[in-house]
Structure prediction request, 373 residues.
Amino acid sequence: MVQPVIQKTKVNLGERSYDIVVGENIIDDAAAYIMPFLNRSRTVIVTNKIVAKHQLPRLEHNFTENKIDYETIILPAGESTKSFSYFEKLLDDLLKLRLERSDVIIALGGGVIGDLVGFVASVYLRGINFIQIPTSLLAQVDSSVGGKTGINSAYGKNLIGAFHQPVFVLIDVTTLETLEKRHIVAGYAEIVKYGLINDQAFFNWLEINGPTLISGPGKEHLPLRIEAIVKSCKAKAAVVAADEKEAGKRALLNLGHTFAHALETENGYNSELYHGEAVAMGIILAFELSYIMKLCSQSDVDRIKNHFEATGAKSIKEFSFDIDNLIEHMKGDKKMTAGKLVFVLTKGIGQSFLSKEVNMNDVKTVLENAIKV
Ligand code: GLY
Prediction:
């Protein structure tokens, strides 16, 4: 049998360090990766209804072959599962299954499953190990790495949660094959983000390869996806290793997210607007804000907009948002310090920085220009 190419990245966090492995069809060999983390041959896989149909059988087959005893908990798909009620339900389910403190939970799914399972793992019996097997592009390049876990509240997205690192992340790029293009385009925004933060060469590469990576013919997209996922995970691992709890630099990973979270909150976290779609809109707004603050050029703004358009991103113009409500949602942002909002601004592609010196009138102008035709 030809051994698949596996790319390994380490997240360096002392005794909480862990590996991220990226490859093709490695989910079919998951037991070999996971076994070292199991104290006994028993685990619980938490997933959602859609992933249960497409990817769970691959994991189950491999676990059965390798005599790993497992239970599965299948939750509804969608952002509304990241709630207090499912947090409670999942804890109760695990207690019913008598999962022990030295056992491991597996999060098989996208960002919603990863964030919810991670948060549950952070408090179950005062903390239990968990493994991420992300199956959406967004989770593979962002949310499965770095230990941010949590749920949403009516007051905003991800406002309740904990930092709890996984012990291992297994990324199989073939799990993306069953996803609709809309999900790939949404996750792609988080890849673009890494280029825009501090890696202009990566953004240049994405301008050339992005359209094929998203929907290339045949199997052409697979090596491009692996390359972009590995690059994104390495970028994220470096930031997380330097600033795990977001005392500073990690907040750069929120480029576009202050706007994005407000858009999602205003939209009620419904399926008309996925997180990654809101992030693409938020990144454009962050560049437009930087432009009207005379920090970056119009040509930078145009380049970003053209790239998102070329890769099929949704436009903010497709939605009608109440601007005053958006401003109110932004004021509830986690990055608020001493009553001031911290924005990720930019001096150009690959030159992002944090700023508390943003005038909310400028934010309002940017939103008015973007939303009102
Ligand atoms: N998604 C941003 C972070 O993990 O810090």
Notes: The chain has two domains: 6-178, 183-371. The pocket of glycine is lined by residues 142, 146, 148, 250, 253-254 (CB under 6 Å).
